[in-house]
Amino acid sequence: MNKEVMIVTGAGQISLAIARRMGRGKKIVLGDKSKDNAAAIADVMTKAGFDAEPFVMDMSDRSSIQAMVEKAKSYGEVTAMVCGAGVSPSQAPIEMILKVDLYGTAVLMEEVGKVIARGGTGVVISSQSGHRMPALTPEQDRALAMTPAEELLSLDFLQPDQIRDTLHAYQLAKRCNEKRTMYEAVRWGKRGARINDIAPGIIVTPLAIDEFNGP
Prior knowledge:
Layout: E1 5-9, H1 13-22, E2 27-32, H2 35-47, E3 51-56, H3 62-73, E4 78-83, H4 94-113, E5 121-125, H5 138-146, H6 166-189, E6 194-198, H7 206-212
Parallel strand pairs: 1-2, 1-4, 2-3, 4-5, 5-6
Helix pairs in contact: 3-4, 4-6, 5-6
C-alpha cells in the first residue's frame, strides 16, 4: 500500500527534529551527500519506529535532486518536504556555498513543487544570516526570487568578485532562500500546497560547532 512520502535533505539535527515531529506514518526519504550520514540518521529514525530510507544525493546537481524526487514518488504521494541541506561559511568556498545553498535549494523547491500533493507542505531551513547583511535593491531581491534557477548563478551581484568572503556568500544564499520561497509559494499554491521558510538563530548543532571553531 502506498504511503504519504516526506522528502528530507540534509541529514542534520534540525532536519531530524522536524522529520521526527512530522514524519510519523510517512515514508521518509533522507537525502544527504554523505552516505554514512544519511545511513546513520535513517538508522536512528528506524530504531525510533519511523519508516526511513537513506538516499545519497548532491544538492548542487539538478539530476541528483530529480533522482531523489523520483525515488520518493515510487513510494507514493509526496506530501511533505524539509530542505535542510547546506554548507556553512567555514565548510566551503564561495562558489560551493552558492551552488549548494542558493542554487540547490531553488532547484529542490522547483522539482518538489512539480509533484507535491494537494494539501502538501514544505519548509526551507534558512538562517538569520539572510537578514544580517546590507540591504539589497528591490531589483536584486526580485532577481533572487524570479530568475530561472539555471540562470541564478549568472546574476552579476552573485559573481565571486562581487562577494567579500564566504560569510557574505552564505548571507546572500539565505536571502535568496527567503525570496525564492515567496515565489515558489505561489506555484505550490496552484497545486493546493504550501511552502514556508524559517530563519533560525544560533542553534547548537554540529554545523554550528564548525562555525564556532572556524576562522
